[in-house]
Amino acid sequence: MALAARKIEPHMVPVALVIGGGIAGMQASLDIADKGFKVVLVEREPTIGGHMAQLDKTFPTLDCSSCILTPKMVEVGAHPKIELMTCSEVTDVQGEVGDFRVSIRKNPRYVDLNKCTGCNLCAEACVQRNRIPSEFDMGIGKRSAIYIPFPQAVPQKYVIDPNCCFMLTKGKCGKEPKCQKACGTNAIDFKQKEETITLQAGVIVVATGYDHFDAGLKPEYGYERYENVLSGIEFERLCSASGPTKGTIEINGKEVKRVVFVQCVGSRDKTVGNEYCSRVCCMYTIKQAHLIHEKIPDAKITICYMDVRAFGKGYEEFYDRVQREKVVFRRGNPSEIYKQGETLMVRGEDTLLGESYEEEADLVVLATGLVPRDDTQQVGKMLGLPHSSEGFFKEFETKETVATSREGIFLAGCCQSPKDIPDTVAQASGAAAMACIHLAKARTRGTES
Ligand SMILES: Cc1cc2nc3c(=O)[nH]c(=O)nc-3n(C[C@H](O)[C@H](O)[C@H](O)COP(=O)(O)OP(=O)(O)OC[C@H]3O[C@@H](n4cnc5c(N)ncnc54)[C@H](O)[C@@H]3O)c2cc1C
Fold first, then answer.
1. Which residues line ligand 1 (CB under 6 A)?
2. Which of 123, 197, 220, 392 is 20 to 30 A away from residue 257, measured at CA?
3. Which pLDDT score is estimated for 10?
4. Do residues 145 and 72 both lie within one domain?
5. Is residue 205 located within the same domain as residue 342?
6. Could you give the percent of the chain with pLDDT greater than 90?
7. CB of 21 closer than 8 Å to CB of 76
8. What is the mean pLDDT of the segment spanning 1-18?
9. Does residue 431 form part of some domain?
10. pTM score > 0.85 for this model?
C-alpha cells in the first residue's frame, strides 16, 4: 500500500485538557500522553489522587489502595507530555471541538514549587503545628497551616491554607513567620497572587468525581451527635495504617468490640431525593467488615442492609468469604440510633425474621452514598453539558457513556455516575481513546491510494 497525498487537519489543536486529577483523570491523562499528545491536567486541590488516595484497601482483592495509586501519581507528575496544574480551576471555556479556548485560575499556593524541597521544616515550625483538622484524614487527624495533604502527594510540595495561616488571615505571625525562618530554600512567598492563564485545547475530558452524601441529612442515625457514628470514608481513614491512628480501630483510645454497619445511607432513599444506587457501598462495607475482623478477630460485626449488590468480578465470592467470617447480615436498616450511657443502641426491624431488633454498638459506620459535586451545575454550564436527574453529568446515550452532547468533550469516572475503581479506570481509558481519535486528526497522516 503506497502512501499518497499527506493530509493535515488544521483545526485540531493537539492538546487535551483533563479536568480533575482523581484516578479517572490520571488514567485518561496517562493514556492520552502515552500516545504522544500533550495533556494539561487541571486539579483543584494541592495534589492529585482524589478519593482513592484516602482508601485503605480496595475490594475485592484487598490491594493496598496507595500501592496502586502512588506509582500512577508519580508517573503523571513526571510525564514529559503532561503539564500538571494543581490548586487550579477552569473558569471559562469558549470555542468548539478542535479549538477550545480555556481560562484557568491558578490559586496561590504561597510556596514556590521550584524552590520547595518537601523537607517538612516549615510544618514543624508552624505556630499552628498539628492543630488544624486534616481534610485528607476527614478531621480525625490534624495538620499545620502549612502542610502537605498526605505523604505521597504529587507534587511533593507544601501549601499554605489561606483560611488558617495567621500571616494571611491577620497579616502577622509573631515577630516573623516561623515557617519562613525555618525554610532553607526561601520557598515561602506570602505575596503570591491568583493568576489567570489561557490556553487552547482540541478536546476535553471531564473527570471531576463525586462527593460524599452528608449523613447529617439522616438525623435519626445520630451522625452529628455521636462521635462513634462515622461515615464510610471516615472509617477508611481510621482503618488505614497510614491514617491518624496508624490503623488501630479505636474510639477515644478504646478498641471497639461491637460494630454495626448501616447500608444505603443517602442512596436508594426517596426521603433525601436520591433514588439511585451508589454501586460501591455494599462492597466497601463488606470490605470494611472484613478489615475489622482481621484486626479484631473477636469483634461482633453486623451489617444492616436492604439487599446486597455484589455485581463485579470476584465480588460475590468476596461477599461469601466475609459471611464465613461470621459477620452477621441483618436485612432491615435501622430506624433509629441513640445512646444509652456510653453505648450506641441501633434499633430497627429485621424484615427476614419479621421482628424488631435492638443492638448495642461501640461504633456505627454509615455506608454513605456518592453524590454529585456541589459545583456540577456551574461546571456543566461552563462546558455546555447537561446533567441527569440524579445531578451527575449526562452521557450522550446510555450506551455511549464517555461521549457527551458536545463533540470533543468526554466523561470519565464518578462525575458521570457512581462507580467502582475498575469501572472508573475502564471508562477513563475509553474517554482517552475517544479523545485520541480526535487528536489524531491534527497529525500529518498518510491516506491510502
Ligand atoms: C468509603 C468509600 C470506599 C470505597 N472503596 C472502594 C474500593 O475498595 N474499591 C473500589 O473499586 N472503589 C471504592 N470506592 C469508590 C472509589 O472511591 C471511586 O471509584 C473513585 O475514587 C472514583 O474516582 P474519580 O476519579 O472518578 O473521582 P474522585 O476520586 O472524586 O476524583 C475527582 C478529582 O477531581 C478534582 N476536581 C473536582 N472538581 C474539580 C474542578 N472543578 N476542577 C478541577 N478539579 C476538580 C477533585 O479534587 C478530585 O481530585 C469507595 C468509595 C467510598 C466513598
1. 19-25, 42-45, 50-52, 55, 58-59, 89, 207-210, 212, 232-233, 236, 280, 284, 287, 373, 375, 379, 413-414, 419-421, 424
2. 220
3. 59
4. no
5. no
6. 93
7. yes
8. 68
9. yes
10. yes
